[in-house]
Every structure is written in structure tokens, then in C-alpha cells.
Design goal:
The protein is of the alpha/beta class and about 280 residues long. The protein has helices at about 15-25, 35-45, 60-70, 80-90, 120-130, 140-150, 160-180, 190-195, 200-210, 215-225, 240-250, 260-280; strands spanning about 5-10, 30, 105-110, 135-140, 185-190. The chain has a single domain (about 5-225), classed as 3-Layer(aba) Sandwich (Rossmann fold), CATH 3.40.50.300.
């Protein structure tokens, strides 16, 4: 069976790093942590200089090019170049992902939430990566904004206001909605909040979407490595367009419980006690 491609789309700071860890628990899946491979191939196969993507730092792109630029070939299709580089990434390890050896790889992909839903890039994916699937990871925008501001390695957000980060969230979710409306590629919505609170159910649903067999042990391991603690929720003023997207996924602009430090601290304390006793969040 030919290896198929899967892409995580949506917004940064939405839990995609954890989702990659969970997906990589499956023996037939490999997801890299921001190798920028699609952006690299888009530029390479259009004979364009490979420069950093406007809304991303160049860390992943530079790492990939430094180690694997020599593997890029004009004689190969974008899909062939993709599989070549991504399988080498898997075997060698990439950034914080340790080397993996998976003989029966059915799905291979990368997480670049902004890039892979860019209207300029999506047609390239559709044309050259047949049978691809998109996983739309979404997180409450207020939490994503807060995470962006406190992210220690967040050079991308330096000097960017909370208001502007919220605009970016809205723009990228609007791009997701445009693709969903076209109904040209299979897409699964996954809420970050469900991943941390209902990990086993969420991952079973995701593996079903990819038509993969899995056992209870994979789902149990996913639960073990997923923190189900919550964080105090900020509140921002947001335009109607943002509110409309939020309501579509069950998000509200006000949350009494998540804005209450006493509740948040008590909830997290109980979760940590549970993990100490049972080993599971």
C-alpha cells in the first residue's frame, strides 16, 4: 500500500506538538515537528528561492535544508521528494523527535498549521499529494493567544499585540473554513480541549479517520502522556467574525470557571493527585 500524506492545519499554539506525539504512538504513522517540507517543496518545484515563510520562523526549514537539501531532485515528483526526506527525518530523528523505525508506514506528514492552510499552498498539496487528509486542530482563541505571549521561544510573537495575534487566529480559521466549504479534501476537526480531557476517545476518532487499526494499549499510552490540567482563561474583546468561528466549535467569550483561579488551581490539584496515585492524568 502506498504511503499517504496527512497534514495538521489551523493555528499555532493550539497543541499540535502534543498531537504529533500522540499520532507517532501508532506504528503506521510518522509526523514530523515542523520540518517545513511542504513550503520547501513548493518553492523548489516552482524554481523559486527557498526563503522563510512570512508567518513562521525559519528554524525548521533551515534544519531540514542543512541535513537533506542534497536529497531534493528535479527528477522526482513533489510526493517522491516528500517521502524521501520525511522518511530520512524519521530514521535520523528531528529536533525533539527521537529516531524511529517503522517498516509499514501508511501515513506520513508534518505539522505546520499556518503554512499548510495557506491559499497559495493548498492547491499545490491537492495537485501533488493525492489522497491527502487534513487534521484541523483548533483551540479556544483566548488560550491560544495567551500561549503565544508566554511562549519562551516565541520569536514569532515578539512585539505582536494580543489583538493582532487574535486577528491571525481568525484569519487562519477562516482559511480552514474556506477549504471545508469546498469539500475537496477529507478534513477532521479536533479540539485541543477534547484531546486533553478525552484523549482516548479523541485519538480513536482520529485513527478511525485515517482508517488505521489500533489497540487499547496505544490509547492508554496516549492518556498517560497527556496532561489534563487546565489554565486560567483570559478574556479579550473580539470582532463578530471571531465570535462566529468560536461558536461553531462550542467556544464562548466568557467562562466563569476558567476565569476563576480558585477553580483552576483546585481542578489541577486533583488531576495531579490522580496521576500520582494511578499514573494516568
Amino acid at each position: 500500500m502506498m504511503t499517504k500524506t496527512v497534514f495538521i492545519i489551523g493555528n499555532k499554539r493550539s497543541g499540535s506538538t502534543q498531537l504529533v506525539r500522540l499520532m507517532n504512538l501508532h506504528p503506521n504513522v510518522f509526523m514530523s515537528q515542523e520540518s517545513d517540507i511542504i513550503w520547501i517543496l513548493y518553492r523548489f518545484h516552482h524554481n523559486l528561492e527557498i526563503v522563510p515563510y512570512q508567518w513562521d520562523t525559519p528554524v525548521g526549514m533551515n534544519h531540514t535544508l542543512k541535513k537533506y537539501a542534497q536529497l531534493l531532485s528535479r527528477d522526482k515528483t513533489p510526493l517522491e521528494n516528500f517521502v524521501t526526506i520525511q522518511t530520512n527525518l524519521m530514521k535520523d530523528g528531528f529536533q525533539d523527535i527521537k529516531p524511529m523505525h517503522k517498516e509499514n508506514l501508511l501515513w506520513i506528514g508534518d505539522k505546520k498549521p499556518f503554512q499548510q492552510i495557506d491559499p497559495e499552498i493548498v492547491p499545490f498539496i491537492k495537485e501533488h499529494f493525492p489522497n491527502s487528509k487534513f487534521i484541523h486542530l483548533i483551540r479556544h482563541p483566548f488560550a491560544a493567544v495567551k500561549s503565544s505571549k508566554v511562549f519562551k521561544s516565541g520569536e514569532l510573537w515578539k512585539g505582536t499585540s494580543e489583538k493582532d495575534i487574535l486577528k491571525l487566529w481568525t484569519r487562519h480559521e477562516s482559511r480552514v473554513q474556506l477549504e471545508k466549504d469546498k469539500n475537496e479534501v477529507p478534513m477532521l476537526d479536533v479540539r485541543y480541549e477534547d484531546i486533553i480531557s478525552q484523549t482516548r476517545t479523541s485519538m480513536a476518532r482520529l485513527f478511525d479517520f485515517l482508517e488505521l487499526k489500533y489497540d487499547k494499549q496505544i490509547l492508554l499510552e496516549a492518556r498517560k502522556i497527556t496532561r489534563s490540567t487546565i489554565r486560567k482563561h483570559p478574556r479579550f474583546n473580539c470582532p463578530p467574525e471571531t465570535e462566529a468561528i468560536m461558536s461553531q466549535y462550542g467556544y464562548k467569550t466568557k467562562s466563569f470557571w476558567l476565569e476563576n483561579p480558585l477553580y483552576v488551581n483546585s481542578f489541577n490539584g486533583l488531576k495531579k493527585l490522580k496521576r500520582k496515585i494511578t499514573g494516568i492524568w
